[in-house]
Amino acid sequence: MNKKRMRLKGLIKKESLQIIRDPSSIGIAFLLPVVLLLIFGYGVSLDAEHVPIGIVIEKPGHLAMDFTGGFYNSEYFSPTVFSNIQEAEKALMKRRIMAICWIRSDFERRVLSTKDSPVGIIVNGVDANQAKIVTGYITGVWIKWLSQYARSKGLRLDAPVNVEQRIWFNAAVRSRNFLVPGLIAVIMTLIGGMLTSMVVAREWERGTMEALLVTPVRIKEVILGKIIPYFVLGMGGMAISVVIAIFIFHVPFRGSFLALTYASALFMLTAIFLGLLISTAAGSQFVAGQIAIVITFLPAFMLSGFVFDINSMPFPIQVITHIVAARYFVSILQSLFLVGNVWKIYIINCIWLMVMALLFFRIIRKKSHKRLA
């Protein structure tokens, strides 16, 4: 038992020294999470803010100016006034503005009319998602002002539905609160998959694997000796990511840190096992790195629910997402950060991660052996 412990300790020390001597490993584990979180946290947003909008008022009046004041007082719009609709349309075609709010000459006469709207909306639909958001924002400004005007006149605004909004879990409706937890899963996939995908391939390329195979160490000890240092490295990167998410991006964390640690450890093992499996099958570091990008990073980015809603994907793609480990970790992270300890979601996703980790480990054990061919 002591000999086994000493051999394992020696292998862990060897791999740890290799990591310390390789600045790229330290950079991927600790610098990459910071860079990616800052880039995505500040650079990627699903919110439409300060949208350039053109306002055309055919006949200026008190009501028209009062209505357009809602655009100036909103953080969602950056309005520009045009003297006529033709100038506004030219600006829209040149993409100087994203939408036009056209207030017709009979605005004040027909402001409460239910037959025809005195306000026209023209939106640049090249980006369909943003077009829907901008249309919703403009409609919201119109409905809000119309309701206030009707109340000031002592009138009742007829509406088919009286909507009372209740926004749960992300009351500020900040896309950053949704994106950053999912990004942590992508980063952990990158750390676990990319780093370990080149571990075994590097040993073969440098000729050190042959020397390792003639030693008394067992193949199980070789695998553990490579897993443990990268696991510690990955959990360190995870800790940095969580700290940045909470204290720099102010993403609320409503769950248990113990539950987060356990789920992170489980996902990190899954990512490491998948990386080792790629490394075992690949013959060189370059090939292993390319395979890791295709098999780990891209599916984690595209098919995990990090940005794109899985329920909106075609059914065949939804089926494929079930073999992407990041899908389960993204669900856990978004639940722990924004909702809390929802144990039904947590346990089911942890079970799937455990199944995938055991499957990958079993395949690695089967493919790893102490012989050269």
Low-confidence stretches: none
Structural class: alpha/beta
Distance between the termini: 30 Å
**Strand percentage, roughly?**
5-15%
Radius of gyration computed on alpha carbons:
28 Å
The description of the largest β-sheet is: 4 strands, mixed
Q: How many domain units?
A: 2
Description:
This protein starts with a helix and ends in a 6-residue tail after the last helix. α3 (62-72) links the parallel β1 and β2 (77-82). It has helices spanning 2-21, 23-43, 62-72, 85-93, 128-152, 175-197, 199-206, 208-213, 219-247, 257-281, 285-302, 315-320, 325-339, 343-367, and strands at 51-57, 77-82, 99-103, 119-123. The protein has two domains: 7-44 and 174-367, no CATH class; 51-152, abc type-2 transporter like domain (abc type-2 transporter like fold, 3-Layer(aba) Sandwich), CATH 3.40.1710. The radius of gyration is 28 Å and the shape is elongated. The chain has 14 helices and four strands. Strands 2-1-3-4 form a four-stranded mixed sheet, sandwiched between helices. α10 (257-281) packs antiparallel against α13. The protein is α/β, with parallel strands linked by helices.
